[in-house]
Amino acid sequence: METAARNLVPVTLELGGKSPVILADDFDLTKAVQRILFAKLMNAGQTCIAPDYIFVPENRIDRFIQTAQAVAQHDLPFGGIGNSGTGQYHGFEGFMEFSKLRPVFHQAPFSSTAALTPPYGSFADRIYHAIKKLPWLF
Questions:
Q1: Which of 10, 62, 81, 94 is the most buried (most CB within 10 A)?
Q2: How far apart are CA 22 and CA 62, in angstroms?
C-alpha cells in the first residue's frame, strides 16, 4: 500500500473476511454439510462469505468428515478418462452423456410455405393480387 500511495496507483482491498461456521451439537449433520459445501463451492469459493473454517464439536468431527466426503462425492463421475472411460458416468449424468439426443421433426399435413415457393400457382397469384390492393402497404 505504501508503494502504491507513493505512485498514486489505485488499490482494491478485499473486504471479505474469514467466515467461520459454527456447528451446533444438536443440528442435523447432513443438512449442515450440504449447506456448508454449497456455500463454499458456490462460484468456486470466490464469494466474500464463503466459509473458510468450521468449528465442529469434538465428539462429531469424525462423523462430520465422513458425511462431508459422502455428500461431496455423491454426484461426481468416477473412473476412466473422457467419454469412453469405463464407469466414467453413472445415474443421470450417464444417461445424458450417452443418450445421443436428437431432435424429432413432425411434418405438418399442410405446408404454408409451399404456396410461396416456385413454381407459383394460382393460389400464390391470388395472394399477391390481394396484397397489392391494400392501400396502406404501398
A1: 94
A2: 16
Which pLDDT value is given to residue 83? 53
Q: Which domains does the chain have, with CATH numbers?
A: 17-79+88-98 (3.40.309.10)
Tell me the residue type at 97: E
Q: Is 14 a catalytic residue?
A: yes
Where helices occur in the chain by DSSP H, the ranges are: 2-6, 29-41, 61-73, 91-98, 122-132
Contact 36, 51 (CB under 8 A): yes
Catalytic residue among 14, 58, 93, 97: 14
Q: What angle do CA 75, 78, 79 make, to 5 degrees?
A: 175
Catalytic, 48? Answer yes
Q: Which of 137, 115, 136 is nearest to 124 (CA)?
A: 115
Q: Which of 48, 58, 93, 97 is catalytic?
A: 48
